[in-house]
Amino acid sequence: MVRGRRLKIGVAAGIVLAAATGVAIARSDGPAPPDDLILRGGTIYPGDAAPFKGDVAIRGDHIVYVGPRAPGVARRIIDATGLIVAPGFIDTHTHVNGALASGDPAARLVLPFLTQGVTTAFIGVDGGGDPDVARTFGRDGGAKGGEGEAALGQSSRDYGINFATYVGLGAVRLKVIGPDDRAPTPDELARMQGLVSSAMCQGALGLSTGLFYAPQSFARRDEVVALARAAAEKGGIYDSHLRDESSYTIGLKGAVAEAIEIGREAGIPVHIAHIKALGVDVQGQAGAIIAQVEAARKAGQVVHADQYPWSASGTGLSAALMPRWAQDGGRAAMLRRFDDPAAMARMRPEIADNLRRRGGPASLLITSGPADAEGRTLAQIAASTGADPIDAAIAILRKREAGVASFNQSEADIAAFMRQPWVVTSSDASQGHPRYYASFARKYATYVKEKQVIDLRAFIDRSTAVTAAMFGLEGRGKLAPGAFADVIAFDPGRFAPRADYVHPARFSTGMRTVIVNGVVAIENGEPTGAAGGRPLPRRPRPGSCR
């Protein structure tokens, strides 16, 4: 199997490939060379068309045939009879930065994703994207201006999956301003804009924000618009974890309106990360949020969203419960406030209200943090220590930050968002939550097969072709001649999650074959250890980086 280069192919297929990719193809009057691989006899969901039974042929890192019967011969044939054959899934919101940056090649395979059929992931989300995009992509330097174009996408490391990255407001703000609650000076704002522009020229997808989280929550709208405009000038996207998904500050409706207005003022497409109605105060508001987005889309604005298929969100304990003013200055400043009686007198009622929003202490499961807290709810920890839930939470945070799974969404809201054609699949994958290992498998098993919220084609299209079109991923998300060979085959009767909230790190089952850029990563349901992934830098708008 050839990895990482394009091959000469026969005349007929070459014409299609050249038209689709712009790659120069050498013509040959002789017979076409054999294909590397044919998946034969599966039910093919191309990603943008009705399903049919047939074959997919791969040569090098590209697909060369999709149809009823692949012509010619192949070095290898995989029998896909009874399987669903589809493009590799694209996950638009993940926290797998650590795995991809690991010095361990096994970690860089990202097997929890491959065993679900995820072949492409977006990182740098929630405002966390490193402005040094070249470093994120594993390169010594990035393409700037019109120079170094050949370097885009090249990496000295092996990865199991493809990945693209944002540049993050949080990372930029920390680098220039630090963790403090204040507006940037004009000079600081110019420096922040410069970091965003440079990251875009190195291949960032756009600007991501996590306006719910300190210190990003300290950024006013005009600051965000200025940075979003810098991304827009290079053809980027504005991706936002909203300032409020509940009723903390401006409310869910107000936060959606803010994101739409930022996009309008900056002239940039808007993507709402992990769209949801979080907490008891806003459950049932999905219809109103959908109407807000539809109104913007009808007015000609580009607005879309992603969603993970779980009723429990995942975040940090301090983000869930602590007032933002208590986090001004970072963790050290927060810990000092815990020892200040006046600060605690102000803080306690706000923590209590945040806990109420989340559904109470029994709704918060500690997924990471101090060893004696993991795997228990805040209510259980409080009962075992004889402390009230607020004191129990503060005791945990004194030791270290903790991750929580917060059970705070209604199934009716989840279903309403999932049915929208502008909502695509994501995982928000983070360790300690089963969404890292099982989001795509769960969406299929629970919302396609069991609850029938959407049908199989909608699930596949909104995990592949629709996603690729939203984000301009050329050659991804479809099974078609000329597309990159990201292909999966799964057993429709066995594709299912094994991970749950008690056992969050169990691989999903039923994914039989996964191919990444022509490299077989999963064979007969087992990892091969082969790494076919690569960085996917977004090309800046032509002429914008000179």
Salient structural properties:
546 residues, 19 helices, 33% helix, globular, disordered N terminus
How is this structure best summarized?
The chain is α/β, with parallel strands linked by helices and 546 residues long. The chain is built from 19 helices and 21 strands. The strands form four sheets. Strands 1, 2, 3, 4, 5, 18, 19, 20 and 21 form a nine-stranded mixed beta sheet that branches.
Task: Give the topology, please.
Blueprint: H1 11-21, E1 37-44, E2 52-59, E3 62-67, E4 77-79, E5 84-87, E6 89-91, H2 97-100, H3 105-108, H4 111-114, E7 118-123, H5 133-136, E8 162-165, E9 167-168, H6 169-176, H7 186-201, E10 206-210, H8 221-232, E11 237-241, H9 251-266, E12 270-272, H10 286-298, E13 303-307, E14 312-316, H11 317-321, H12 331-338, H13 341-357, E15 364-368, H14 378-385, H15 389-399, E16 403-407, H16 411-418, E17 423-425, H17 435-450, H18 456-461, H19 465-471, E18 487-490, E19 511-516, E20 519-523, E21 526-527
Parallel strand pairs: 1-4, 1-5, 6-7, 7-8, 9-10, 10-11, 11-12, 12-13, 13-17
Antiparallel strand pairs: 1-2, 2-3, 5-18, 14-16, 15-16, 18-19, 19-20, 20-21
Helix pairs in contact: 7-8, 8-9, 9-10, 14-15
Distance between the termini: 38 Å
Structural class: alpha/beta
Number of strands: 21
Task: Count every helix, treating DSSP H or I runs of 4 or more residues as helices.
Answer: 19
Low-confidence stretches: 1-29, 140-152
Rg is 24 Å
**Mean pLDDT over all positions:** 91
Spatial shape: globular
Strand fraction: 15-25%
State the major sheet: 9 strands, mixed
Helix content: 25-40%
